[in-house]
TrEMBL record, chain A:
Database matches in Pfam families: Gate
Keywords per UniProt: Membrane, Transmembrane, Transmembrane helix
Domain Nucleoside transporter/FeoB GTPase Gate, chain residue ranges per copy: 43-151
Protein name: Spore maturation protein SpmA
Superkingdom assignment: Bacteria
InterPro entries linked to this entry: Gate_dom
TM ranges: 37-54, 61-79, 91-112, 132-152, 164-187
UniProtKB/TrEMBL annotation, chain B:
Organism: Lentibacillus halophilus
Record's keyword terms, sorted: Membrane, Transmembrane, Transmembrane helix
Source lineage: Bacteria, Bacillati, Bacillota, Bacilli, Bacillales
One Pfam match: Gate
Encoding gene, per UniProt annotation: spmB
Domain Nucleoside transporter/FeoB GTPase Gate: 46-146
Transmembrane segments: 7-25, 45-62, 155-175
Name this protein carries in UniProt: Spore maturation protein SpmB
Length: 194, 176
């Protein structure tokens, strides 16, 4: 599915440019965006190295195991196919915590690490049930403090930059719960088909 | 609110301090373990590089050709009919696809309409309450080499749709 969507985005864009006379812009965007993507990946190295280093220390010191134990009842409901005491739980929890406080920089490395642990569990290059659930949680956003938005509102002289925190929390809650429900629906549909 | 901002800034440094204190207490070689874990980060960043290049280039072709804008204009009349404020439509459609484009639009909407207008509040809520599905999918699955995504994209996009509808309904009810 991703293969088709990926090809479609590019092909539709190029064909549209033929009729719209925007081929120059497309050419320019092609190479600019490739460079932008490389800059983005290289930029991720600093965050990834730092956080994966710290989290490795946390894991060795038993902090992740302690966190997992604390929140196990909740996590096991959401991710029923991850066994007790598996390191994936610790990383999932760290990712969720970082997301809640709007710390996207810290959330990404922990999310990737959680995915890696879940891949060790499934041992294949197909997305497992828990991987998709975890992805759904992240794409629906877990932010309760949208720090970036608050700072943009401040810069534009809002009378109350933080008044949108309430609406954001409600909307986030609705979208996260729906993401979990939608994920469950698709999961049960996929096993029924087999 | 002051308390929440303080928690946000204190959280990471305090977490690092706790990790280092506990690890030293338990005689874990902290520095060596840090370096060993950090090596993984370099490998991950490089393994997800081609995924990001592929995805970002395809999205930029779609945007720069004007096709994305044309599509937005095509379906706008329909969305206006069901009560979506017209100014917010481009942001709602771009939010799951491109994080940088969405942030740019949010900033632009807030500065032209004012942060305390309905559109400004709507853009703020929408920006905060959903995330860039395509980016997260690319980075998380790309870094660990997942090839078959199954129903992941469908779930992500449907959740975005619910999030966007929820933002519009909640903001209109509370501020409208």
């Amino acid at each position: 599915m991703v293969n088709v969507i990926w090809a479609l985005m590019a092909v539709i864009g190029i064909v549209y440019a033929m009729f719209n006379g925007t081929m120059d812009e497309v050419n320019e965007a092609l190479f600019d965006s490739a460079e932008e993507a490389v800059t983005l990946s290289i930029g991720l190295i600093s965050i990834l190295v730092f956080w994966l280093g710290i989290m490795k220390v946390a894991e060795e010191a038993g902090i992740l195991a302690f966190l997992s134990k604390l929140f196990r009842p909740l996590i096991i409901r959401i991710f029923p196919d991850i066994p007790n005491d598996h390191p994936a739980i610790g990383y999932i929890l760290s990712n969720i915590t970082a997301n809640l406080f709007g710390l996207g920089n810290a959330a990404t490395p922990m999310g990737i690490k959680a995915m890696e642990e879940m891949k060790k569990l499934s041992g294949s290059d197909e997305a497992s049930r828990s991987m998709i659930t975890f992805l759904a949680l992240n794409t629906s956003s877990l932010t309760i403090i949208p720090t970036m938005v608050i700072s943009i509102r401040m810069q534009n002289g809002s009378a109350s930059p933080t008044e949108i925190v309430g609406t954001t929390i409600i909307a986030t809650f609705i979208s996260t719960v729906s993401a979990l429900v939608i994920d469950r629906v698709f999961y049960y549909r996929s096993i029924r088909r087999k | 609110m002051g308390i929440i901002t303080t928690i946000s800034t204190w959280l990471i440094p305090c977490f690092i301090a706790i990790v280092l204190i506990v690890s030293t207490w338990k005689r874990v070689p902290a520095y060596e373990t840090f370096v060993e874990g950090g090596k993984d980060g370099v490998r991950m960043a490089f393994s997800l590089l081609p995924f990001l290049v592929g995805m970002i280039v395809a999205i930029s072709i779609l945007r720069s050709s004007g096709a994305l804008e044309a599509f937005i204009q095509l379906i706008s009349p329909f969305l206006v009919k069901i009560g979506v404020p017209p100014d917010i439509i481009p942001l709602a459609l771009v939010r799951p696809i491109s994080g940088t484009a969405a942030l740019g639009m949010t900033t632009e909407l807030i500065s032209t309409h004012g942060p305390d207008s309905l559109v400004g509040r709507l853009a703020s809520t929408m920006q905060g309450s959903t995330d860039t599905t395509l980016y997260i999918l690319t980075v998380y699955f790309g870094a660990v080499g997942i090839r078959k995504m199954h129903y992941a994209l469908k779930v992500g996009l449907l959740a975005d749709l619910v999030g966007i509808i929820a933002s519009i309904v909640v903001v209109t009810l509370l501020f409208g």
